[in-house]
TrEMBL record:
<dbReference type="GO" id="GO:0000160">
    <property type="term" value="P:phosphorelay signal transduction system"/>
</dbReference>
<dbReference type="InterPro" id="IPR050807">
    <property type="entry name" value="TransReg_Diox_bact_type"/>
</dbReference>
<dbReference type="InterPro" id="IPR010982">
    <property type="entry name" value="Lambda_DNA-bd_dom_sf"/>
</dbReference>
<keyword id="KW-0238">DNA-binding</keyword>
<dbReference type="InterPro" id="IPR011006">
    <property type="entry name" value="CheY-like_superfamily"/>
</dbReference>
<dbReference type="GO" id="GO:0005829">
    <property type="term" value="C:cytosol"/>
</dbReference>
<dbReference type="Pfam" id="PF00072">
    <property type="entry name" value="Response_reg"/>
</dbReference>
<dbReference type="GO" id="GO:0003700">
    <property type="term" value="F:DNA-binding transcription factor activity"/>
</dbReference>
<feature type="domain" description="HTH cro/C1-type">
    <location>
        <begin position="83"/>
        <end position="137"/>
    </location>
</feature>
<dbReference type="InterPro" id="IPR001789">
    <property type="entry name" value="Sig_transdc_resp-reg_receiver"/>
</dbReference>
<protein>
    <submittedName>
        <fullName>DNA-binding response regulator</fullName>
    </submittedName>
</protein>
<feature type="domain" description="Response regulatory">
    <location>
        <begin position="1"/>
        <end position="62"/>
    </location>
</feature>
<dbReference type="Pfam" id="PF01381">
    <property type="entry name" value="HTH_3"/>
</dbReference>
<dbReference type="InterPro" id="IPR001387">
    <property type="entry name" value="Cro/C1-type_HTH"/>
</dbReference>
<dbReference type="GO" id="GO:0003677">
    <property type="term" value="F:DNA binding"/>
</dbReference>
Length: 141
C-alpha cells in the first residue's frame, strides 16, 4: 500500500534479480518505461490490451526464462537447440546459414531461440544446409 508498481519491483529486485515481471500501466510515460527497463522488467504493457496480447506476452516471457508453457513450445526449444548444436559443430555462423538457406539471419536466430516456429519449408532448407535429415532436428520427438 502507498507505493507504485515500480517501487514494488525495486524492492523485489533486492531479493530476486531474475524473477519475470510484466508491468501493466494505464498511464505510460517515458520516465516509467525507462525506470521499468532499468529495473529489468520482462515486458511493459499499456492498457487497454487484449487477452491474446497478454497470453502472447506471458508465453514470450516464459520462453525467455526457459519456462515451457506448452508441449509445442518444448518442441520449438528442442528444434532450436538442435539447429544451434549442428550449426556450431560445423563452425557455421548465422550469416553462413542465411546464405545457404536464403532465410534471414533474424529468422534463423528467432528459430534457434524458439521465438518463432519454423515452417516445414524452412526446416527443410536448414536441414539441407546442415547436411542432416530433417528428422534429426526434432531430437526425441
Amino acid at each position: 500500500p502507498g507505493q507504485d508498481g515500480l517501487e514494488l519491483l525495486g524492492r523485489i529486485r533486492k531479493f530476486d534479480k531474475d524473477i519475470a515481471v510484466i508491468t501493466m500501466t494505464a498511464t505510460p510515460t517515458l520516465e516509467s518505461a525507462t525506470d521499468a527497463i532499468n529495473l529489468g522488467v520482462s515486458a511493459y504493457l499499456q492498457q487497454p490490451f487484449s487477452g491474446s496480447e497478454m497470453r502472447e506476452t506471458v508465453a514470450r516471457v516464459a520462453r525467455k526464462k526457459g519456462i515451457v508453457v506448452r508441449r509445442e513450445d518444448e518442441l520449438h526449444l528442442t528444434i532450436g537447440k538442435r539447429i544451434r548444436e549442428f550449426r556450431r559443430a560445423r563452425e557455421l555462423t548465422l550469416k553462413h546459414m542465411s546464405r545457404r538457406t536464403n532465410l534471414s539471419v533474424s529468422l534463423l536466430s528467432q528459430i534457434e531461440r524458439a521465438e518463432s516456429s519454423a515452417s516445414v519449408s524452412s526446416l527443410y532448407k536448414i536441414a539441407n544446409a546442415l547436411d542432416v535429415r530433417i528428422s534429426e532436428l526434432f531430437g526425441d520427438y
